[in-house]
Amino acid sequence: MVKICNYGFDESFVEEHRDMHGIAYTQNVLSGRYKNLILWYLKENDRRFGEIKKFLTSVSQGSLTKQLRELESDEIITRTVYPEVPPKVVYGLSKKGKDLMPIIDMMEEFGKKHGR
């Protein structure tokens, strides 16, 4: 069983199963109910928090904030704060996040082909 915690991977797992590390790392980065949808929504344009919240109508503000913080912490998205009153915060894909887009696109195609 893959041992993943908030701080990364169990060192013995990484050493013993180097070939699986990439899969487990990617799964860890994308784990979260809304992360895939957030990334898909940011694919074309940077978005403000309110736009993302409107897109994901069923997510609570706290859950969305948590997912965004985790994606930012993993360097998948960027968060830009503009010095305005009230503050303007914009989220966008980082280079690392853009590298994930082929995976998100493949998930989309798989769902179109096999989903109901």
UniProtKB/TrEMBL annotation:
GO terms for molecular function: DNA binding. InterPro entries: ArsR-like_HTH (IPR011991), HTH_HxlR (IPR002577), WH-like_DNA-bd_sf (IPR036388), WH_DNA-bd_sf (IPR036390). It comes from the Bacteria. Residues 5-116 form the HTH hxlR-type domain. Keywords: DNA-binding, Transcription, Transcription regulation. PANTHER family: TRANSCRIPTIONAL REGULATOR (PTHR33204:SF29), TRANSCRIPTIONAL REGULATOR, MARR FAMILY (PTHR33204). This is Transcriptional regulator. It comes from Mammaliicoccus vitulinus.
